[in-house]
Amino acid sequence: MLAGMKLVANSSGLALAGLLAVGASGAEALPQAPATLCIMTFNLRYASPTPPNAWPQRRPIMKACLAQVVPDLIGTQEGVYPQLKELAADLPDYDWIGTGRDGGSRGEFMAVFYRRDRFEPLEFDHFWLSDTPNVVASSTWGNSNRRMVTWIRFRDRHAGREFYFWNTHLDHAIQTAREKAAALIHERVQALKTNLPVLLVGDFNAQAGVNPVYDILVGNGRFQDTWTLAAERRNADLNTFNGFRDVRKDGVRIDWILLRGPARVSATEIVSYAQNGQFPSDHFPVVTWLELGSTQP
What we know:
Layout: E1 6-10, E2 13-20, E3 36-43, H1 55-69, E4 73-77, H2 81-90, E5 94-97, E6 112-115, E7 119-128, E8 148-156, E9 161-169, H3 175-191, E10 198-203, H4 212-218, E11 224-225, H5 226-229, E12 232-234, E13 255-260, E14 263-270, E15 286-292
Parallel strand pairs: 3-4, 9-10, 12-14
Antiparallel strand pairs: 1-2, 2-5, 3-15, 4-6, 5-6, 7-8, 8-9, 10-13, 11-13, 14-15
C-alpha cells in the first residue's frame, strides 16, 4: 500500500482516498483567480501491459498532460486499482475517492481526484446504474459491464462555498441502458433537494446534442452543458474519442461536463496532448474553467 493511503468503508463499497498531484513537472499553467475552478473529465483507458498503447508507455504522458493543464478536480473513468495507485504515486498533491464497479478494489473506478489544499470532502457515496442502485455491482438493463456513479459534496476553502461533484460512465453498447441511467441520475440529483451547484461529468458514450441521453439530462432546464455556455471553446472541431488513431474533426463530444446552478464559464477545451504521436488515452480529456455563482444549501 502507498504510504499515506487510507481506506474508508461505507455502505456502498470501499472508498479509496489516495494521493495525487499535478504541476510537478514544471509545465507552465495560467494563473487562476481563487474562485475559478478548473474541471476535467478524463477516460483514462484501463491499464493494459500489451503494446501498442500499453499503460507503461502511456503513464508518463498522462502525467505530463495533467501537469500541463493543472486541473482542480478530475472525474476519471475506466481506471483500475493498480493503475490509479501508480497515477497517484506519480502525481502526489491530490487526494482521491472511488470504489471499483465490481465492488471494493475490483473492476473499473469512477475515481475523483481533488486538490487536498483547496477542497474538503464533506460526504460521498456511490450507486450503481440499475434497477437496484444500492446493490454493489448490480446490472439489470442488459449491459454486460456494471456502470455506476461516484459523487462527493465538497467545500471549497478558497471560495468559501459548497458544491456537488458527480462522476459517471454510461454503457458503451446499449442505448436503453444509457437512457435509463440518465433518468436515474436525474432522479438522484433531484432527491438531493439542494440549491447547491451540481457538476456532473463523465464519459456518456452518447453524442452531445444528438443522443436522447443528452435531452434527458440537459432538456427542460435540468443541467446545462458547460461547452455551450463557455465564452471560449478550444479545439471545438475535435472528437473527444480518438481511439489511439488519427485525430478526427467531426465535433463529436461523448465526454461532457454538465452543470446545475448559476456559473460563469470562461473557457472549455478538448485537450489534444500527445508525445511523439502517443496519446495518454483513447479519449481526450475535456476541461472547463468556471466560477460558481452564489447559492444557499
